[in-house]
Amino acid sequence: MRSFDYKEEWKKLLTPEIVMYLTQIHEFKGEQTLFIEAKADTLSQLVDIAKIQSTEASNKIEGIYTSDERLKALVKDSTRPRTRNEREIAGYRDVLNTIHENHDYIPPKPSIILQLHRDLYKFEGMDIGGRYKTSDNIIEEQDAEGNKSVRFRPMPAWETPEAIEKICQSYDEALNSENIDALIIIPMFVLDFLCVHPFNDGNGRLSRLLTLLLLYRSGYIVGKYISIEKLIEQTKEIYYESLQLSSAGWHENKNDYEPFVKYMLGVIVAAYREFSSRVSLLTTQGMSKPDRVKEIIRATLGPITKTEILAKCPDISQVTVQRALADLVDKGDIIKLGGGRYTKYIWNN
Description:
CATH topology of the largest domain: Fic-like fold
Number of helices: 15
Strand content: under 5%
Structural class: mainly alpha
Largest sheet: 2 strands, antiparallel
Number of strands: 4
Distance between the termini: 59 Å
CATH architecture of the largest domain: Orthogonal Bundle
Oligomer: single chain
CATH superfamily of the largest domain: Fido-like domain
Strand order of the largest sheet: 1-2
Order of helices and strands: HHHHHHEEHHHHHHHHHEE
Helix content: 55-70%
Number of domains: 2
């Protein structure tokens, strides 16, 4: 069986680029901690938005959809799921809430991973949740013509329980070493989890939930306010490419963790930057709501949608944003692109 030793492997990853990412994240973490202590109440709206975006994006990556209206109702737990897609969305919502509220009491152990997977499928009414795969699985990819090919062959089913035990053990050992940064170990663990592919279904979604859990347990809680899953979904081509690069030679202990570690650190940096951006807008003193809408568009590189503006300033109503946009278009401050649900706005330089 393949071996797992994060205490040794992490040393190869201290490249200048990765060290730069680590430095940025540590600085952002300090700023976020200070702000949360002073303005915790201000951030409650960001938490609600992040939950909706995380639930939508992580399921969307796997082709699981529902309408925006139904999604919001499901995340708020104000309706019951009607379809299989909605049952899986509701399961994700519940596991996400569990991690948000109890991460300090959820250690990364095989029994916990099985329990989280069980809860992911709690609305299915079948025994597909909380059980390791019973037959070997493969990871396929499909080209533009619809032709399928095998991208990766995960660990055989009979080796899966022992493999999960070993990656959890190696993670604990590495984390207990004082000089190892958890930010490097977490994506290594997640990559190995995906290469083991321990379940018949739900591996991708559970890997993203485990990413949040391990970040929270190490003190990096930006995912509570900014959806890390949405950032992954927006860059999923790079996500899959980094996975493929880092999984090459995995069975022979010859894989390179660096592409996937760099990708995940980049996502975390982007999340912290987005947090800082939203916080600055939420706490701007003396600026009217229409002026804040104007400032958001001016500070955005490229076009932005009304939905994205609303996400950046959840305390401003949709009506106010719509009026501000119409006024800015009339004045020539911004340019309207497209129409209908695909309408975007860009600053008129």
